[in-house]
Amino acid sequence: MRKLLIWLPLAMFLIFLVVFAGGLIRPESKTIPSKLVGKPMPRFALGPALPGKPGLSSAELMNGQPHLVNVFASWCIPCIAEAPQLRQLAAAGVPVYGIAIRDRPEDLARFIERNGDPFRAIGGDPNSSVQIALGSSGVPETFIVDGKGIIRQQHIGGINPEDLPGIMSALGEAK
Amino acid sequence: MRRAIPFAAVALIVAAPLRADSLMPAAKYANEQLADPAQEHQAKALMETIRCLVCQGQSIADSNAEMAGDMRALIRTRIAAGEKPEAIRAWLIERYGDWVSFKPPLDGLTWPLYLLPILFLGLGIWIVSGRLKRRRTGR
Fold first, then answer.
1. Substitution target from A13, A128, A129, A151 for chain B, most B beta carbons within 10 A
2. What is the phi/psi pair of residue A22, to 5°?
3. Residue B113 contacts A where some CB pair is shorter than 8 Å
4. Is residue A108 part of a domain?
5. Does residue A26 belong to any structural domain of this protein?
6. For residue B5, is pLDDT > 90?
7. Domain assignment of residue A145, yes or no
8. Hey, are the CB atoms on A32 and B24 less than 8 Å from each other?
9. What is the spatial distance between Cα B29 and Cα A157, in angstroms, rounded to a whole number?
10. A28 to chain B, minimum CA–CA distance in Å?
11. What ipTM was assigned to the predicted interfaces of this complex?
């Protein structure tokens, strides 16, 4: 028993070594999902991000119809990549609403001019407050919200063409 | 070829760096302290225990990420409005999960984190006291 016990510290050291080395060699890259999935949309009211286009408030989202809320920004590069997919969704009749994070109207206008405008309304979130209230940790992110204003799903990162069927079926289920 | 060098140099200077940052200035209270030192102290203590979502190993007090700045501004604004730091922490945990807090709660999953150090300390004391006793009795 004693003889075995003497090896215990070394064994524990080796276990720690393996755990730490594992963390260093392959660091976790984590996406942080919002805990609000399955819960109601937080209440907010954002002013228009672009002159001549309506802003966005949470009350408008409870119109009995499922919709997409896209958290984006003109300075975000993956947002350019997902723009064709958002246009395609909007063309298919999906109501797409935007929340523009830390954006200036002139930059956003240029972004819309270049990448098209799938948005029914864009709320300007100059200090990320609604983004934080949504539990979103970056741009782009897209929330699928049902007609009662309950968040059904969160898509982290850009929407790629292969994500479209999943999003359409989630929207169908949110009816 | 020769002529291309100054052109390349100018192009390098003029080219905008590709950054994932907005062009907006930081929020008012991102880098500005609250006027009331007691409130600022509370805000700072909370910021040091809230994890940055972008640069995940850092607290929002340490991070230069824009989102961390916006979270600092949010915390300072709410503390200035009289909200309790633990209420703000709870609000953030409601959104991002326990992950966002550097102060893990004591629950079914985390109890070894709190109990094991005490257990190991007890074990150490027991081993050392055994050794010392043996030495004193001269064995």
1. A128
2. -60, -45
3. no
4. yes
5. no
6. no
7. yes
8. no
9. 28
10. 10
11. 0.85
pLDDT at residue A89, as a whole number? 96
Task: Give the class (CATH, top level) of B24-103.
Answer: mainly alpha
Tell me the pLDDT tens digit for each residue of A20-62.
999 888 877 678 899 999 999 999 999 999 998 999 999 888 8
Using a CB-CB distance cutoff of 8 angstroms, which residues of chain B are in contact with residue A30? 56, 99
Residue B138 φ/ψ region, left for φ over 0, alpha for ψ in the -120 to 50 degree band, beta for the rest: left
Give CA–CA dist A77/A116, Å, rounded.
15
* CATH at A77: 3.40.30.10
Q: Tens of pLDDT along B23-68?
A: 888 888 999 999 999 999 999 999 999 999 988 789 999 999 999 9
pLDDT of residue B138: 63
Number of domains observed in the structure of chain A: 1
Q: Is A150 in a helix, a strand, or coil?
A: strand
pLDDT digits (tens, 9 = 90+) for A126-145: 999 999 999 999 999 999 99
Using CA atoms, how far apart are residues A166 and B120, in angstroms rounded to an integer? Answer: 50
User: What's the pLDDT at B4?
Assistant: 57
Residues of B in contact with A102 (CB under 8 A): 22, 24, 66, 70
- Which candidate in A8, A32, A36, A106 is best for mutational testing of the B interface (most B CBs within 10 A)? A32
